[in-house]
Amino acid sequence: MRIDEELEKALNALSVLNTEYGRPFTVNGFSSFMRDAIKKAGLPLDCKPHGLRKTLGRMLADAGCTAHEIMAALGHTTLAEAERYTREADRRRGAHQAVIKLGAHRENRIAQSGALGLGKKSKTGERSK
């Protein structure tokens, strides 16, 4: 099973906000429901709903989703919160691309003088420094 299928399965198990009787959860009832859903999804018991939501936000941003798409998926009411995920992803992507470009630059660098010419006398008779 792929990670996105596992996460979708876990999120589907967590998407119920009312009890089986259609009533709002109590604090203890919701905690118990979450504990059971986390166990059923095979996730570590120290997972928290906010952490799972944040994980999904990061995964969406890393997949190239826009801040508006993340906002819709996570139910944010302001764009600023969703943009946090895209900024972090852009920063990671930018750092990765910078390292790739540096490597490509180093591979394509052409030496200004060949190794054979180092230390030989110049046309004026002086040794190069």
Describe the structure.
This protein is mainly α and 129 residues long. The protein has two domains: 1-47, no CATH class; 65-108, no CATH class. Helices cover 60% and strands 0% of the residues. The chain is elongated, with a radius of gyration of 27 Å. The model has no long low-confidence stretch (mean pLDDT 79).
Q: Count the helices. How many?
A: 5
Please state roughly what percent of the residues sit in beta strands, choosing from under 5%, 5-15%, 15-25%, 25-35%, 35-45% or over 45%: under 5%
Estimated radius of gyration: 27 Å
Helix content: 55-70%
Order of SSEs: HHHHH
Quantity of strands, as a count: 0
The structural domain count equals 2
Whole-Å distance between the termini? 63 Å
C-alpha geometry: elongated
Q: Report the mean per-residue pLDDT as an integer.
A: 79
What's the main sheet like?
Answer: none
Contiguous low-pLDDT stretches (5 residues minimum) are none
- Structural class of the secondary elements? mainly alpha
